[in-house]
Amino acid sequence: MSQIPLIWYCLLILALFLYVLLDGFDLGVGILFPFAPSDESRDLMMNSIAPFWDGNETWLVLSGGGLLAAFPLAYAILMPAFYMPVILMLLGLIFRGVAFEFRFKAVRARRVWDYAFHFGSVLAAFMQGMILGSYVGGVQVAGRSFAGGPFDWVSAYSFMTGVALIFGYALLGSTWLVMKTEALTQNWARKCASYVLAYVALFLVIVSISVPTMNSAIRQLWFSFPDFFYLLPMPLASAVLIVSIWRQLGRGAQISPFLMSLGVFLLGYIGWGISLWPWLVPFAVTFRQAAAAPSSQAFLLAGTLFVLPLILAYVAYCYYVFRGKVSQGGYY
């Protein structure tokens, strides 16, 4: 059996995870933006993510393009299911991009662009969370086509996951600002991180309890023996990280809260992946059933394996060059 579909499946998981982590903190900065203590703090917040935000969205493009090219059947089913939230998410990202370009040039209308940046970030994060909640709940499929309605993605559960992701991104954004800023802005960001951390912990508990109840296979996986003992370290590690973030914030740490917040997202992402394996369209189409022709996937994989290390190297170099604290000068 060819392993190319599995390789592509792993590449898509990697690309989506990198998007969530890297674009998550700059969406989190946008979510917190209007609550900053001063205009100078907002300038610093913009400057802290200006070198990274557009490059972070590369991983979203790679995820969508890879899904279309490598798993066209899954793309044909999932896109009709999520047309509306995807369009709303993209509109939010567009508002953010426009706000970046115009805010530092505007004088009288600066507040307008502040709110465009904020509400664009909130909208993008909320739609991503709603897509995630609806995706985990499963998509109606008949044969090889989406069989549901245009508003199937709207539910109490998807609304909850949308709000949860807003708080999750706010945690990433606030701990990023703790790491990248100083004085007034850093102290404010530290308080924000402590505040949103409690909500992140609450939503983690809710999601951890609710996901296994949504599907018998997931429930069997997490609560059967001996799988229960194999998987138990993951929620325990998440609890340890949550407590450690809170303690590190109280001790005045600057870098470790951000790294630990990334760890919380990583553990949640791994748990999500374990629950949905091997489905690409839960719980109807596996990644092997959705795969394109082996020759097509092999051809695309050759180019991807050449380009992907270059992208990773560029991203690493960018973060290295712009390491350290952000300054008040050097506007975007």
Overview of the structural elements:
The chain has helices spanning 4-32, 39-49, 53-56, 58-70, 72-81, 83-103, 110-137, 156-180, 183-213, 216-223, 227-231, 233-251, 256-276, 287-290, 294-321, and strands spanning 141-142, 145-146, 279-281, 285-286. By secondary structure, the protein is an all-alpha fold. The chain has one domain (4-321): Formate dehydrogenase/DMSO reductase fold, CATH 1.20.1630. It has a two-stranded antiparallel ribbon with strand order 1-2. It has a two-stranded antiparallel ribbon with strand order 3-4. Strand 1 and strand 2 (145-146) form a beta hairpin. Helix 1 runs antiparallel to helix 4. 42% of the residues are buried.
Q: What is shown here, in short?
A:
The protein is mainly alpha-helical and 332 residues long.
Tell me the CATH architecture.
Up-down Bundle
The helix content, as a percent range, equals over 70%
Q: What fraction strand?
A: under 5%
Q: Tell me the CATH topology.
A: Formate dehydrogenase/DMSO reductase fold
Low-confidence stretches: none
Number of domains: 1
Strand order across the largest sheet: 1-2
Distance between the termini: 50 Å
Q: Report the count of strand segments.
A: 4
Which CATH class?
Mainly Alpha
Radius of gyration over C-alpha positions, nearest whole angstrom: 20 Å
List the secondary-structure elements in sequence, H or E.
Answer: HHHHHHHEEHHHHHHEEHH
Chain-averaged pLDDT: 89
Number of helices: 15
Shape: globular
Decide which structural class fits the backbone: mainly alpha
Largest sheet: 2 strands, antiparallel
